[in-house]
Structures are given as structure tokens and as C-alpha cells.
Write a structure and sequence with these properties.
This protein is of the alpha+beta class. 45% of the residues lie in helices and 22% in strands. It has helices at 63-73, 81-97, 105-119, 121-131, 137-149, and strands at 11-19, 24-31, 37-43, 50-52, 58-60, 102-104. Strand 2 (24-31) and strand 3 (37-43) form a beta hairpin. The radius of gyration is 23 Å and the shape is elongated.
């Protein structure tokens, strides 16, 4: 590891400890030439998860897209930011536990709808209306009827 101050390659590790909830290692290092200290982080390198969209294009998984959709659906609803964050964490864990390099956007969308249905039915209908591209009021009413049956 090169020293960021003098670019010398001789550095030594002074201290190592877990970081980021045990998903990384934080190392305190000292340059043997100039004596200055600096911190490095060591993380497991992972392949990025690819999402296959409806039109068959692929893009890198982006948590913020799920967050944006859920936040729009929960706008002015009695759902706390902590509930939203926990729900997205659960969805993300489920997606990564599939252990696939590529996941269809529809799989993620169905997971979001499933969680929203349990969290807030109005938010669920809002999300479903956009996600399932409701074409008219009848489609909207059919979804509401399904909710009322349960």
C-alpha cells in the first residue's frame, strides 16, 4: 500500500478492526519513510447485480430506484422512514439471497408489492397502479376488489 503523502511503498499496519457491520476491515497504517498515518478499508469485491428490465435491457442494480418508487407510493401515508428503510433492506436481502447475477425487474417489483401490501394498502395500490400500468378505472377497481376480498 502506497503512502498517500510521500508515495513510498513501505507501510506497516498498526491496527485492524471490523468496520461497516463486519462487512469490511479498517486498517490504520503508518508510512515507514515519512511516519505519517492513514486509514484504509478492505472490502470483499463482488460482481454487480444486473437487473433485466421489461424491454430486455440490462442495468446495474440501483437501490435508489426502489426507494424512489416506495417513497412516491407512501407519500402522505402513515409510514415512517424507518419502516420504509427496513422494508427496502428486507427486499434487498431477499434479492441478493437469490444468489443470481441477473434478476428480472418483475421479481423485484413483485417483492416490493408484496411488502407494501402488508405495510400500507393505499401505498400498495399506488405502487401497483404504476408498476402494473393500470390502463383504466376498471383495472384499478379489480385490484381494489382483490384487496377487499382478503
Amino acid at each position: 500500500m502506497k503512502c498517500p503523502y510521500c508515495n513510498d511503498e513501505n507501510t506497516k499496519v498498526i491496527d485492524s478492526r471490523p468496520a461497516e457491520e463486519n462487512s469490511a476491515i479498517r486498517r490504520r497504517r503508518q508510512c515507514e519513510k515519512c511516519g505519517k498515518r492513514f486509514t484504509t478499508y478492505e472490502k470483499l469485491e463482488t460482481m454487480p447485480l444486473m437487473v433485466i428490465k421489461k424491454d430486455s435491457t440490462r442495468e446495474v442494480y440501483d437501490r435508489s430506484k426502489i426507494e424512489a418508487g416506495v417513497l412516491r407510493s407512501c407519500h402522505k401515508r402513515p409510514v415512517s422512514p424507518q419502516q420504509i428503510e427496513a422494508m427496502i433492506d428486507e427486499i434487498e436481502t431477499q434479492v441478493f439471497n437469490l444468489e443470481e447475477k441477473e434478476v428480472a425487474a418483475s421479481v423485484i417489483g413483485e417483492l416490493v408489492m408484496s411488502r407494501l401490501k402488508d405495510l400500507d394498502e393505499v401505498a400498495y395500490v399506488r405502487f401497483a397502479s404504476v408498476y402494473r400500468e393500470f390502463k383504466d378505472v376498471n383495472t384499478f377497481m379489480e385490484e381494489l376488489a382483490k384487496l377487499l376480498k382478503k
